[in-house]
Amino acid sequence: MVVVGAGYLVGNALAQQPDPTCGPGRVRLRGRCVEDECRRSDECEHAGQCTLRGLDCVAASVDDCRVRLCARDGRCSLVGDECAATTDEECRGSQACRLYGRCVAHEGRCVATAESCRASPRCPAEGRCAFERGQCVVRRDEDCRASPLCASEGRCSAEPRGDGRCVAASDRMCAGSAGCRERGACVARNGYCEASSARACARSSGCRERGDCGVSSGTFERSRCAPATTEHCRRSRVCESERRCCRNARYGGPTCDVCPDGDE
Question: What is residue 238's three-state secondary structure?
Answer without folding.
Answer: helix
